[in-house]
Structure formats: structure tokens, C-alpha cells
Design a protein that fits this description.
11% strand; 5-stranded parallel sheet; alpha/beta; 251 residues
């Protein structure tokens, strides 16, 4: 299977360099190049690629707005940025991007990133996830993920986030909680005393049941829903039960 890619960057040398590297791979083909956000959106809609690489800063329409407009498309978006944890990265992930790459990325890492994202994974190392969490929790009002205006009076019906959490098993909730704390599959497996394969199954179930694209969205959902309290890393009491619930390995 050939992975089809659209590369969008207003710097021609960067754009053509990335395209050349990707086109040289036997399993990757560059479907189109774009010099700004509007061209990028048009190219994705016209070619329906598997992956779109979007520069964060572009004329006419930036990469974040382009990502928002492509949120309903099957194409998975990776943002290109100049600086590590650029101030726009959070907004890009929230807009639906599956991760980000620095423009000085090594050749092999660029190719690997495209393959990873095309396979349905997010491009976020655990260390990056932890930093995303730190930024995310600074932005959330401290009402268990609920905007301050909505925190009072208490709603008659359960919040939508809590309703969505109800579809998860106890073990899946615990997996989501650990994932939201920036833990890798290996770390989650050690914490839950299960195999990494079992963790991957739980993560897949969480994403499917909650209709989330990837781990990045799962992290943000965990905080927005109140499963994890912003700034504490602890589960909100009364929403998840005993943290050790389901330790017998059943899902």
C-alpha cells in the first residue's frame, strides 16, 4: 500500500526538500505540494491523501486553520514547526492534528513519522505528551474541565464527558487515565501489570468507543471530561471509582 502525502509550506526549499525525501521511499508518494493554507486545503480535498504535512505559519491561511477545515476528512494532519513546542502546537492538536514535527527533523525520522501517522498512531512521544498536558491544564478553568460559566448551577443531567466515559470499562478508564498522564504503553503495562499488547488493545478500545482519532485527543478528552483533574494528575473522586478496580486483567 502506498501512503499518499500532501506537503504544505510557504518556504519552497523546505517544501521541495521534504517532498523529495518522501518521494524517494518505495511506499510513499507525494500527491501534491502547497505554498499556503488555502492551497493545502484544496490539495487535500482534491487528492484525498493519507497524510498532510502542514506548516504552522503560512500566508493567506495558517496551518492551524487549515487543520480545522480538514478535521472531518480522513486525512491525518501533522504540523511542521520551527521551534520545539511552538506556542501554536497546542492549538494545532486541538484542531485535530495527529502530531507535529520540527522542520530540522532528520530524514529517517520524517519518513518514520509519516508511516506512523498513516498507520493511525499519533506523533507524540510520552515526554511531549507531558508537556502538552502542562500547557493544556494551564488553559483549563479549575472546575474539573468544565468552563467556569457552566460550573454553576449544577446541571440536572450528567455532563456529556461523563456520559461518554460511561461506555468504558473500569480497565479502559484506568488506561485512559495513565495515558493522560503521559505514560508510554510500556509504563502503562507495568502499572496495570499486563502485557503491552493488552494495553494496545485497551487504548484502541478507548479511541473507538470515545470516537477519538488518536492519543493526543484522548489526553485532552481525559482532562476535559474530568477523569483527570487539571494540575493534579489525580482522578476526580466519584467519577472513576477505585483506581485499582479491574486489576484482575479483565476488560
Amino acid at each position: 500500500m502506498t501512503i499518499r502525502v500532501v506537503v504544505a509550506d510557504d518556504q519552497e526549499l523546505v517544501r521541495s526538500g521534504f517532498a523529495m525525501i518522501l518521494d524517494a521511499q518505495p511506499d510513499i508518494a507525494v500527491a501534491a505540494e502547497a505554498g499556503d493554507g488555502e492551497e493545502a486545503v484544496a490539495a487535500v480535498l482534491a487528492h484525498r491523501p493519507d497524510v498532510a504535512l502542514l506548516d504552522v505559519r503560512m500566508p493567506r491561511m495558517d496551518g492551524i486553520e487549515a487543520a480545522r477545515r480538514l478535521a472531518g476528512e480522513p486525512t491525518r494532519v501533522v504540523m511542521l514547526t520551527t521551534f520545539d513546542m511552538d506556542s501554536y502546537v497546542y492549538d494545532a492538536l486541538y484542531a485535530g492534528a495527529s502530531g507535529f514535527l520540527l522542520k530540522d527533523v532528520r530524514r529517517d525520522d520524517l519518513v518514520h513519522a509519516v508511516r506512523v501517522v498513516a498507520a493511525g498512531e499519533s506523533l507524540l512521544a510520552p515526554s511531549v505528551t507531558r508537556r502538552l498536558i502542562a500547557d493544556f491544564t494551564r488553559r483549563l478553568p479549575r472546575h474539573g474541565g468544565v468552563p467556569a460559566a457552566a460550573a454553576e448551577p449544577a446541571p440536572a443531567a450528567p455532563p456529556r464527558g461523563e456520559q461518554r466515559l460511561a461506555v468504558l470499562t473500569a480497565r479502559e478508564r484506568e488506561t485512559l487515565r495513565h495515558l493522560a498522564l503521559g505514560m508510554s504503553n510500556a509504563e502503562i503495562a507495568a502499572a496495570l501489570v499486563v502485557s503491552e499488547h493488552t494495553v494496545k488493545t485497551h487504548v484502541s478500545n478507548v479511541l473507538t468507543k470515545l470516537e477519538l482519532r488518536d492519543r493526543a485527543q484522548a489526553v485532552m478528552f481525559a482532562y476535559e471530561s474530568g477523569l483527570v483533574i487539571p494540575g493534579t494528575g489525580e482522578r476526580e473522586m466519584g467519577r472513576g471509582g477505585d483506581p485499582r478496580e479491574g486489576v484482575d486483567g479483565r476488560s
